[in-house]
Amino acid sequence: MLRNISLTARSVLYSPQTSVRCFSSQSEFEDAQKKLKTLKEEPDNDIKLNLYALFKQATTGDVQGKRPGMIDFVGRAKFDAWNSLKGQTQDEAKTNYAKLVGGLVTEDAATAPEPTGPSIDGLDKVDGLEVSREGKIFKITLNRPKKFNALTLDMYKGIQKALEVSNNDKSTSITVIAANGTYFCSGNDLTNFKAAAGGTKEQVAEMANSAKVVLHDYVDAYIKHEKPLIALINGPAVGIAVTVLGMFDYVIATDKSSFHTPFAPLGQSPEGASSYTFPLIMGSLRASELLLVCKKISAQTAKDYGLVNEVVPDNEFQSQSQKAIEAFSQLPPESLRINKKLLRSFHKDKLLEVNDTECDLIAERWQSKECHQAIAAFIMKGAKK
Ligand SMILES: CCCCCC/C=C/C(=O)SCCNC(=O)CCNC(=O)[C@H](O)C(C)(C)COP(=O)(O)OP(=O)(O)OC[C@H]1O[C@@H](n2cnc3c(N)ncnc32)[C@H](O)[C@@H]1OP(=O)(O)O
């Protein structure tokens, strides 16, 4: 709330006989009404009351009629504020209104919170990612459309860093993850492990252990994220792009999207804390449908299972999802953080423990024959094109 507006502007509020410089006019009064709508923060109540009184004095002149009764607190306060300007001409009131709004606009610009925390510039250098601030929205966009936004090791690290930067960024109130192209994300880039395929046992173990650290820290960043985390699913989502959704606070999906976690065919195991969040969200049988027998589900089924909040027709997805995130970003930031912390606090320690367990297991799976055969088959498929 704007409380400490400039002394000049405040002086206007309490002295109806304020001497008026002849700079006010109807157009300045109208211009001030437009500027008032641009304030990033709402003025506090006593300023709003004075704006009301000046507006009425400017447009109607001295207050008429009876003072409202005791129980009509608001009506009485408005009457008294207007009455306090009795004797001020309409022109003077227009000038004082414009002066007050001018003070608010100056104050608003000066108090716009600066982004805090590390700059996002370095993050912009990560191939496959775009990181931006759009008003109060901290946006992470997967931008590797030719490879269906499959996640490289750098992208994992870049998203983790972006989540951490957003946590410390006071100029934004929500974090959004979106994607360019026809896919939301095809999951782990299976060529991440290409180097290890056919390597010695030690080389494979070394690859598995370094990948485990990347995965662990990536998922940790979601568990520890303090702002509302929103996913805009513009197309099919595979693997880890699906499993981490259990840690999002709102998910909007186009009706062209699908959700697939092919862990068994890949000789791998569930991650993203999904072995805990999915049974919690959708029940054990539905969780098994996705994570055990690896059924691909539609956007509507994902919504029925509690993984998606809204399914939107594809041709309306961009506009509707943008409208939704802009609305969310205008909610009071402190309340958003406090209420998200409450909602997630009861599971946080468990999620951290689950992430440890899942990462230990998947690191073993990456060294299994089943996994190597699956990855080799995928790479061979690409080679035959
Ligand atoms: C640090 C490690 C952390 C690991 C975390 C654990 C995460 C686990 C997972 O995410 S498991 C899931 C992994 N993802 C997949 O198994 C999907 C693999 N992709 C496919 O099966 C298919 O591409 C498809 C079904 C998604 C789409 O098939 P199709 O429509 O036939 O398209 P293409 O296969 O031709 O793909 C187009 C283009 O994109 C490349 N690509 C797609 N997905 C991936 C991928 N996951 N990894 C690498 N590359 C991918 C594909 O090779 C094609 O590229 P090209 O045109 O050949 O250059």
TrEMBL record:
* Span of domain ACB: 25-110
Which InterPro entries does the record cross-reference, listed alphabetically? Acyl-CoA-binding_protein, Acyl-CoA-binding_sf, ClpP/crotonase-like_dom_sf, ECH/Chromodomain_protein, Enoyl-CoA_hydra/iso, Enoyl-CoA_hydra_C, FERM/acyl-CoA-bd_prot_sf
Q: Which reaction does it catalyse?
A: (3E)-nonenoyl-CoA = (2E)-nonenoyl-CoA
Cellular component, GO annotation: peroxisome
User: Where does this protein reside within or beyond the cell?
Assistant: Peroxisome
Q: Does the keyword Transcription regulation apply?
A: no
Under Gene Ontology molecular function, one entry of this record is: fatty-acyl-CoA binding
Question: Which domain of life does this protein belong to?
Answer: Eukaryota
Its main localization is other
- State the SUPFAM superfamilies in the record: Acyl-CoA binding protein, ClpP/crotonase
Q: What PANTHER family does the record point to? A: ENOYL-COA DELTA ISOMERASE 2 (PTHR43684:SF1), PTHR43684
The protein in question is named Delta(3),Delta(2)-enoyl-CoA isomerase
